[in-house]
Amino acid sequence: MIHSVDKKDLSIGISACLVGEKVRFDGSNKPSNFCIHEFGQHVTYKTFCPEVAIGLPIPRPTIRQIKKADVISVSRSDGTGDVTDALQAYGKKIAKMTKHLSGYVFCAKSPSCGMERVKVYSPEGNALKSDGVGVFAREIMAENPLLPCEENGRLNDPLIRENFVARVYAYKHWQNLEASGLTKHKLTTFHSQYKYTVMSHDLIAYKQLGQLLARADLPLEDMAEQYITGLMSALSIKATRKKHANTLAHIQGYFSKHLQPNERQELCNQIDAYRNGLIPLIAPLTLIKHYLLQYPKAYLTKQAYLSPYPDELKLRYAY
């Protein structure tokens, strides 16, 4: 199975406060129920608190991003205790040490760890736009542009949560492929397993990735780099009900010669009901998996789309 990865082999970076470590400025934590009790059952976390790592105490005065002219620094609200360089240096250090990670969960709105929408202030203390990026988080993402990253707050959204986890497992699958030694055959096989996954996110990328692998003028290393960049970019686009329904209809075609008229109609009804928002994705998928047991199709059995991550996470029950 695509998701059959041992917990100890699937490492995820995470802000330490999100898994219960009391490292926040006030000595508290910010535990994420999903990260600890659900996702945490299937992955191994590598925790980081850049503020503590650079020597700030617990508890400590709060720090914020302050913009003067076009330069953003991180310091206390009164402008003292600048830690910008220290956070950047630590971020660069960790970014190079964490190439083995398959994902990262950052603490939202943090001046060090926020992925986006971090509050920025003027030197006088006035709130400016909330368009900053945590200094530490920026370094991690810049050094590892393909790494699936998300924030704890956004993971409360079922669509974003499912998308993040699916990207983590796809990226881990790719990392395992690279570690085994890339060949053109392995790359082509990998793509065949993700065809319907890509289709459910971005039909243009679905066509482009197929065209890329058909080229004979690219060295394998260049082709692989372009492929994984295109794949992760496509998967970052949220799948919609319309795209999922289109993908399900394509899969349905594999059973056209086997299903009885009433069975075919039942599957059509399930797909339409999902398209119209009446039932969750798990409903038509369950029926397809039932038919796949009755009428085995080796190509479909290997599709990541049908089982992108452990079923126990129940991520397709909510949308």
TrEMBL record:
Short name of any one Pfam family annotated for the protein: 2-thiour_desulf
Residues in DUF1722 domain copies: 195-310
InterPro entries: 2-thiour_desulf, DUF1722, UCP037004
Protein name (record): DUF523 and DUF1722 domain-containing protein
Organism: Colwellia maritima
UniProt lineage: Bacteria, Pseudomonadati, Pseudomonadota, Gammaproteobacteria, Alteromonadales
